[in-house]
């Protein structure tokens, strides 16, 4: 019976839809309309979430490009010249300095020129010397501006003593070695994304004329200096 009523209702609705389509649409059973759910709608209307923040840019290298600077130092110097018959091997206090110009060729290596001079005084003895060196700097950990430095070149020195009219001297091959640490004050503020910058740092070193043979002229100078300069970066 129920199936007969349902079939009759369907046939009646088909006949009505053929005769009056608008009435058939009004009398059709309502069916739910598919659409986005509430969570989907909320997700579509929500503002896009911010992605992960960019990592802090890596600090640029400070030992970079051409450099120019100066080192000044107090020092003790020992000098010997065989033609002076008076005693003159005591340590002579004094000071000196050097101008340096060069290039950072690798993050772990610099090469440059060093022109230096110094004056040292004793009770009776006066010693002055100068020279020109090729200087190499090695940074075992480029992340930190600590370096071992060495150099070789040539130079000359004069020794006088007020107890004699004779003059002595040293000359020929000149060598150096030192350790240095460099600070770049305000570099992170003034040039945070550019390499190089102003630099200052302590340097402990040795410079000397080695004797060509036993009894020949020689000198050794121990210094504690301050290096300051500028790296242009690249």
Description:
This protein starts with a helix and ends with a strand. Strands 1-2-3-4-5-6-7-8 form an 8-stranded antiparallel barrel. With 234 residues, the protein is of the alpha+beta class. It has 4 helices and 8 strands, in the order H-H-H-E-E-E-E-E-E-H-E-E. Strand 7 and strand 8 (218-231) form a beta hairpin.
- What is the total tally of β strands? 8
Please give the radius of gyration in angstroms.
43 Å
Shape: elongated
Indicate the multimeric state.
single chain
What's the end-to-end separation, in Å? 96 Å
Share of helix, binned = 10-25%
User: Unreliable segments (pLDDT under 50, ≥5 consecutive)?
Assistant: 50-54
Q: Record the strand order, biggest sheet.
A: 1-2-3-4-5-6-7-8
The main β sheet shows up as:
8 strands, antiparallel, barrel
Proportion of β residues? over 45%
User: What string, H for helix and E for strand, traces the elements in order?
Assistant: HHHEEEEEEHEE
**Structural class per helix/strand content?**
alpha+beta
């Amino acid at each position: 019976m129920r199936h007969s009523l349902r079939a009759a209702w369907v046939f009646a609705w088909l006949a009505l839809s053929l005769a009056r389509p608008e009435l058939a649409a009004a009398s059709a059973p309502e069916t739910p309309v598919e659409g986005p759910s509430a969570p989907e709608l909320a997700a579509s209307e929500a503002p896009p979430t911010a992605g992960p923040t960019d990592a802090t840019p890596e600090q640029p290298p400070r030992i970079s490009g051409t450099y120019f600077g100066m080192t000044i130092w107090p020092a003790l110097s020992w000098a010997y010249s065989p033609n002076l018959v008076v005693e003159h091997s005591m340590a002579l206090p004094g000071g000196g300095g050097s101008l340096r110009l060069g290039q950072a060729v690798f993050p772990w290596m610099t090469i440059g020129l060093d022109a230096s001079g110094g004056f040292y005084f004793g009770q009776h003895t006066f010693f002055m010397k100068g020279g020109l060196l090729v200087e190499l700097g090695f940074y075992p950990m480029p992340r930190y501006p600590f370096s071992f430095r060495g150099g070789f070149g040539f130079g000359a020195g004069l020794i006088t003593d007020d107890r004699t009219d004779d003059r002595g001297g040293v000359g020929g091959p000149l060598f150096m070695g030192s350790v240095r640490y460099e600070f770049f004050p305000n570099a992170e503020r003034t040039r945070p994304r550019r390499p190089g910058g102003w630099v200052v740092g302590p340097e402990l070193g040795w410079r000397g004329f080695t004797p060509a043979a036993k009894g020949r002229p020689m000198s050794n100078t121990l210094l504690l200096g301050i290096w300051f300069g500028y790296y242009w970066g690249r």
